[in-house]
Amino acid sequence: MDGLLSHKERNEICSKTLKTGSRTYFFDARETRAGDYYLTITESKKYYNEIGEVSYKKHKIYLYKEDFSKFQNILDDIIRFIIHEKGKEVISERHQKDFKNHSSYNQKMKMKDKNRNDQKKDSDKKQLTNINFEDV
Questions:
Q1: d(C-alpha 55, C-alpha 57), whole Å
Q2: Element (H, E) at 53
Q3: Class assignment of domain 1-64?
Q4: Strand partners of residue 62
Q5: Does 90 score more than 80 pLDDT?
Q6: What angle do CA 45, 32, 6 make, to 5 degrees?
Q7: Where are the domains of the chain?
Q8: CA dist., res. 12 & res. 110, Å (int)
Q9: Which of 29, 28, 68, 32 lies closest to 44 in space, CA to CA?
Q10: Please, which pLDDT band fits residue 38 given cuts at 50, 70 and 90?
Q11: Are 99 and 91 in contact (CB under 8 A)?
């Protein structure tokens, strides 16, 4: 093809794959017609239809260079928030069979519920004490 790349070769520049149980994530650098690069992130999830045949559901995100910085900042913020709130340990029935009986999980949940209830009570009290009868 004398220096010309096929559409597929030109469009797919670099790919990485992350397999996690029934999900696979594909990270692909692709090329626009103008010769610039962008990112596609594809989630592919295996499932079985009614007759037991394997199928895949796919969801795709297109991310362009002008949005990379904002996307990365928000992603980093959300990841830090989740790890700060719940730690790195996976807490779920699927990953931890006795997660409902997991003492640190239960203690954390009870404390969070208690704190929420205390905050709600304090908020309710403040609302009641800040009544101005001149406005009525």
A1: 7
A2: none
A3: alpha beta
A4: 40
A5: yes
A6: 85
A7: 1-64, 99-129
A8: 50
A9: 28
A10: very high
A11: yes
